Amino acid sequence: MKRLLFAGLLGIALSSELALAQTFSLFRVDKPAQSELNAIAKDFEIVGREGDRYDIYVPLEKALSFKKISPSAALITKDVDADWRKSLEQKAFAGGYHDWQGVQEFMADAVKNYPQLATVQTYGQSKGGVELNYLRIGSGQMQNLTKPKLFLDGATHGDELISVEVLVALVDELLKGYGTDERLTAMLDKTDIYISFVVNPDGYLKKQRYDNWVDP
Prior knowledge:
Elements: H1 2-11, E1 24-30, H2 34-43, E2 45-50, E3 53-59, H3 63-69, E4 74-77, H4 82-89, H5 100-113, E5 118-125, E6 131-137, E7 149-153, H6 161-177, H7 182-190, E8 192-196, H8 201-206
Parallel strand pairs: 7-8
Antiparallel strand pairs: 1-3, 1-4, 2-3, 5-6, 6-8
Helix pairs in contact: 1-6, 6-7
């Protein structure tokens, strides 16, 4: 059980890094001048470095703009997500993930099945007008200010699908274990846990990392 919970919390930080709706190319720049490097870093994402060699993700439609900044940059991969797109078309991988509606249904089911432990709260709207909400799990009243609070979130980037699934599995384990597993019961008796499964619903609905080319 300890391994499961540790792996779950560790997995929150993991990212699938798979952009479904946008195409990114990988460019490599060798020994750029500092002014060139500054210009690249201002508008593009540097994803790797080895000595004076830099790897940069560039949106396909911005490739010409990038080449004006760095004419000597070499194209390494035109579409870094080509394999993922192919597997998605073949329905070989992504079908098991919760979509946005699936996440909402999971939270509603948690409240329905464990009303003494789970509540859903809304805390605002996204830039795209999508409701922002979280699931609170824990025994006792929310007004207990002396009880420690723990906040967990997923999908900071919309393509981080696995982070949502880790949270779903963790919540499912905690709720099902309450009253039967002594350690899990103690966790919810002593701590209120707040889970925002998808903090970037606009990106999650599009399954893309960026919001108008801005990295959240």
